[in-house]
């Protein structure tokens, strides 16, 4: 994991690699930060401004998903992989 909070998860069965980036969306009118990732940055240590994200179609990423605040990226990835194991059902 980097100081930005970015980390990768590799599924050893399928070989798929998932990239997770905590995004910091700061409201310039407020004196405090609003985190779009449910506070994962505070747990993992970092977040980046949206414009600095590497997760873009231009960089080869597909099926880009924004998670609502409070949603665990690791749990979401586990759910996707389990759904695939069941043949897309679920």
Describe, in short, the structure shown.
With 90 residues, the protein is an alpha+beta fold. It contains 2 helices and 5 strands, in the order ββββαβα.
Describe it.
It is a single chain. The protein has a 3-stranded mixed sheet, with no helix packed on it. With 90 residues, the chain is of the alpha+beta class. Mean pLDDT is 78; it is low at 37-44. It has 2 helices and 5 strands.
Task: Annotate the secondary structure layout.
Layout: E1 7-10, E2 17-20, E3 23-25, E4 34-35, H1 40-44, E5 48-49, H2 73-85
Parallel strand pairs: 3-5
Antiparallel strand pairs: 1-2, 3-4
What class, by secondary structure content? alpha+beta
In the sheet with the most strands, the strands line up as 4-3-5
Q: What is the end-to-end distance?
A: 31 Å
Biggest beta sheet summary: 3 strands, mixed
Q: Which key phrases capture this entry?
A:
alpha+beta; 90 residues; three-stranded mixed sheet; 2 helices
């Amino acid at each position: 994991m980097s100081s930005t909070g970015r980390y990768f998860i590799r599924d050893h069965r399928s070989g798929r690699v998932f990239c997770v980036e905590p995004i910091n969306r700061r409201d310039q009118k407020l004196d405090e930060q609003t985190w779009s990732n449910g506070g994962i940055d505070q747990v993992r240590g970092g977040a980046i401004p949206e414009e600095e994200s590497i997760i873009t179609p231009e960089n080869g990423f597909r099926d880009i998903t924004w998670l609502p605040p409070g949603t665990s990226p690791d749990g979401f990835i586990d759910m996707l992989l389990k759904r695939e194991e069941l043949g897309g059902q679920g």
